[in-house]
# Entry
Amino acid sequence: MGRERKRLGWQRRDDWGSHPQLVHRLEANRFVTELIAATLADGSLGVSEWWGSRSAAARLTDASQRSRPIPDAGFLLETPAGPSECYLEWDRGTETLARLTHKLTLYRHAEVQCGELRPVNVLFVVPSERRLQALVDAVAADNDRRRKTRDNWFTPSWPLSAALTAELNEQGPLARVWRSLADPGRRLRLCEPTARTGLAPIELGRCLGRRWRKEQPHFWQTLSPLGIPPSNPAPTPAAPDLEESNVPFPEGPSPVERMRERLLAEARRDLERAAAGSGAADWTSSGIDGLMLDPDQEPNPEEWR
# Structure
């Protein structure tokens, strides 16, 4: 465009490509999305809610608390036994072991403050056996200290589990790769931790990743106006089996792709007219070519409880 960068209102902090936490956030989000994808093949499991870091922290403790855990993500996993409330700590090995194990103390404090949320499952994902062993040792030391304290009145009950990044990548989040930090020799599946039986289960068809699948009834009708059927639809003949016939597979863009291109063309024309009418007005077209469905726009399953 031949314009100076400072005239575009750009600031260095807006450059997400160089954000120090970008890889960490992407990996934590990828874990949840892979978990959602894994549940689609299981008719008994589903992720009904997914909270970001701030929302997850707010569910655990009040923002006024000075020392509180701030999970990387939180989610509700619907299981046959009921919803399992989980909070994720994604460790890339970039912080000290002392800081990593200190998070256990923060979750113990949160458990004291919000007992009504019991049981809550805390999940650590670590890159090495050494870091996993540090968590195991920290839990054992804390339990030993409580046993030796005569006036101890609190016994932790939130299950703490950990998995290695390599095993997750190889076997998937629903595999038996989760180790109890209180009993590291015991391996669990993610659907096995204690569920919140006080919560009513959600219909799996409304869980994340299922609502917008094409095999769902009335899928196209929900994508109004694309899916609105004609008032007097003509009977549609049965489609031939393309694999068993010599009919060539139709080429060209799909109806959704054609509509997207039409909307993009209209948006560009509107911007060109606006720019021409305002002289050398400053404007950018960022985001126009990135039109896509936002997964965060799915209805909040909290309304269904």
Remarks:
- Residues 20-211 form one domain.
- The radius of gyration is 25 Å.
